[in-house]
Amino acid sequence: MNLRTPADGHVNGAFLITGIMASGKSTVAQRLAERLPRAAHVRGDAFRRMVVSGRADMTPEPSPEALRQLRLRHRLAAAAADLYAEAGFTPVVQDLVLGPDLAGFARLIRTRPLRVVVLAPDPAVVAERERARPKTGYGGGWTPALLDDVLRRETPRLGLWLDTSLQTPEETVAEIITRAAEAVAVKT
Question: Please, are residues 28 and 129 in contact by the beta-carbon 8 Å criterion?
């Protein structure tokens, strides 16, 4: 698929990269943005970290306040993506978006086409990646197996789902670019 628009050479539309913690979202989104001629990496978690006091983090049994803050984070990330697109950049939004929230987040981003990519490596691979990385993503009752279960049982099959267990980030990005037409979740 030709991702470039003939008028200005940038890639039209937007990308939303999701998956569980340690699935490779940040790395893949960054490298995808670097491969595109004019792109911005919108990190959804940055909006969570901007809350200096009163932050309510997500847990397996989230509080109403945690859910409210999650929705705010999604609205902020979607708005940032649309503003980058209006300025001529291809937004590559990256965040942990699972369950019915994926369809809701996809509706929040107005830029079209919206390409959704779900990174779905085996939870044992995710657990190994989590042990090897310097930051800790899991806690608050979450485990790779529990979050993977939410991903596979409760998340709608929007866009392109990739088992990246045996792929390098570069291989994953190449597959996303090659299969971009399959990732289109919302055309208009």
Answer: no
Domain architecture of the chain: domains with CATH: 14-186 (3.40.50.300)
Count Cα neighbours of 157 within 13 Å in the Cβ-side half-sphere: 3
What are the DSSP calls for 93-122, one per residue? EE----TTHHHHHHHH---SSEEEEEE---
Beta-carbon count within 10 A of 180 CB: 19
What span, in angstroms and rounded, lies between the C-alpha atoms of 54 and 38?
36
Cα gap 188→40, rounded to integer Å: 21
Cis peptide before 113 (omega within 30 of 0): yes
CA nearest neighbour of 14 among 87, 110, 101, 119: 110
Average pLDDT over residues 112-135: 93
The pTM assigned to this predicted structure is 0.92
Cα distances (angstroms) measured from residue 70 to each of 41, 60, 132, 145, 177: 19, 13, 27, 22, 29
List, for residues 89-123, the tens digit of each pLDDT value: 999 999 999 999 999 999 999 999 999 999 999 99
Q: What's the chain's average pLDDT?
A: 92
Rounded to whole angstroms, the Cα distance separating 124 from 139 reads: 16
pLDDT reported for residue 7: 54
